[in-house]
Amino acid sequence: MEDAQVKERVSNGVTEEEDVVTPWTVTSVNDTGIDYDKLIKKFGSSKIDDELLARFEKITGKKPHHFLRRGIFFSHRDMHTILNLYEQGRYFYLYTGRGPSTHAMHLGHLIPFMFCKWLQDVFDVPLVIQLTDDEKAIWKNIKVEDAIKLAYANARDIIACGFNPKKTFIFSNLEYIGSNFFHNVTKIWRRVTLNQVQSIFGFGDSDPMAKIAFPPTQAAPAISSSFPFIFKDAKVHCLIPCAIDQDPYFRMTRDVAPRLGYPKPALLHATFFPALQGSRTKMSASDDNTAIFLTDTVEQIENKINEHAFSGGQATVEEHKRLGGNCEVDISYQWMRFFLEDDERLEQIRKGYISGEILPSELKKELIDVLQRLVSEHQKAKSKVTDEVIKQFMVPRDLDFVSKAK
To answer: Which of 255, 313, 389, 397 is the most buried (most CB within 10 A)?
Structure first.
């Protein structure tokens, strides 16, 4: 792992700063955030281009989600393989996860679940959601009992996104690990060397052994036999929507899976949801003022946006009307890209802001309205998620999977 906030490299005798993207640290040297084109080259993934989006729409009959249309999910591994399977009437499943480090999830945490809900509806496939409470017990030094409680609290927010209970299995690692799941963890352990893990994740000699041992636990859900009650003995392809910083786990998985006799998982990579203070870092659940939490009131949302959202506007109203604002760095606009579904309205806002017609205060007001509605609707949905509903999602069971995987 990187000890420094920003990595440096030497080119032609000149020291240059670089973006840092690991599963634990994300920092950028630019006000506009991570250079995702460079990241694609560094990680060796493929850009989600117009050809892939057109093929997606042709095969599914659905307009691509605005996360795809706007490049929020920007990179992939083997998405064409997934579309081939769907075109042939063969099945796959979805897998995503959440590391529960706090009772209150924030808006950034919603992104993969909003997208997975849409993918589940489009493809009508099973979804498994891993709650890595073991990881948080290791990295955050949280008591095991408290980590499990956080997992259940986060499950309530996740369920409120509207997943189909007949096709969704949510599990806590600390409660679920055993039987077939742990068998696969053990098989992966045997096939990944210490040198490989150190190379992929940057672990050092002083890191706890638990950190070095954890990656196979995140890899195992991409192996369908980890869930025999869902997939029986079928060797099923897996599609993993996740933020790009999680890719190292699945590069390792893609290397191991064929050696275990299973297909490589496919991935869809998301950009980072920026903190209120700007795009140099992703928001943090440990800093209340970097994020809008799903427990925030309408007043808290308004105050946080007005006080902390980084503006791309000019210093004075007169200058702004003359010079216009910078949407590339303005957090209110960047957040609108995530949560305003209306493409036409978003373009009107963009043009109005860069021309100076829309003021920073007016742009913030637009965002406040969008977020207050979104969070209020989520809170209403969450209030209906009882302990019995959570249990329904977290009991291992058959998800009516039809084996057309082979």
So the answer is: 313
Task: Write the pLDDT tens digit of every residue in 100-145.
Answer: 988 889 999 999 999 999 999 999 999 999 999 988 888 887 888 8
In the block, tokens 């869930």 appear at 227
What's the CA gap between 194 and 191, in Å, rounded? 10
Transcribe 330-344 into DSSP letters. Answer: -HHHHHHHHH---HH
Closest CA to 36 of 73, 81, 77: 73
First to last CA, the chain: 39
Residues 134-159 as b or e (16 or more Cβ within 10 Å = b): bbbbbbeebeeeebbbbbbebbbbbb
- Cross-strand pairs, 155: none
SS3 of 279, please? Answer: strand
Residue 47, both tokens = 């850009």
How far out from the chain centre does Cα 252 lie? 18
Sign of CA dihedral 290, 291, 297, 302: positive
pTM above 0.85, yes or no: yes
CB 335 within 8 A of CB 349: no
